[in-house]
Amino acid sequence: MKNSILIIATVVLTFFNSFATTTSNGNPVNLNSNKVVKIYDWDLEVKNGKFSGTSLSMDDAQKILKLLSKGELVLNKQIISYYVLQSDSLKNNYRNYYWEVQTETGYAKGFASTKQKARELISLVAIGDIIRFKIVESKPVIQK
């Protein structure tokens, strides 16, 4: 009797498990360090308004800030670097997951389009043992 119940339970679980798999909705992406780039988000607040954007290099970000602030009273200026996939580097709508990692040798942060890609990026940029990391999912803001 016990064997019959175990066999039936195994068949039922196998049946349900076969329907639990999901199919891939795209081509798999093999990540390596060549596909990860550092981008620079910049913010500038002057007396007459606020500006923000993304640049692929620190020099470009500084040039843009210099052009925008020429002849203006600068209230605040900031450049922050992030790691992202090269394919997502200038697409802000793909920055759904913010991640940070602290290792024995340093600190890095960035954005990814999926939680899985965020974990893969963390493992790519982390050198040494990971002390702590976090992944934060952004939610769309509903305006009333």
Write a brief caption for the model.
By secondary structure, this protein is α+β, with helices and mostly antiparallel strands. It is 28% helix and 35% strand. The strands form two sheets. A three-stranded antiparallel sheet has the order 2-1-3. It has a three-stranded antiparallel sheet with strand order 5-4-6.
Shape type: elongated
The tally of domains stands at 1
| Mean of all residue-level pLDDT scores | 76
How far apart are the termini? 62 Å
Order of helices and strands: HEEHEEEHE
Q: SS-based structural class?
A: alpha+beta
Please, could you describe this protein's structure?
With 144 residues, the protein is of the alpha+beta class. It has one domain. The strands form two sheets. A three-stranded antiparallel sheet has the order 2-1-3. A three-stranded antiparallel sheet has the order 5-4-6. Strand 4 and strand 5 form a beta hairpin. The longest helix is centred in the first third of the chain and has 18 residues. It is elongated.
Features:
144 residues, alpha+beta, three-stranded antiparallel sheet, 28% helix, 35% strand
Protein topology:
Layout: H1 2-19, E1 36-46, E2 49-55, H2 58-69, E3 74-85, E4 97-103, E5 107-112, H3 115-125, E6 130-137
Antiparallel strand pairs: 1-2, 1-3, 4-5, 4-6
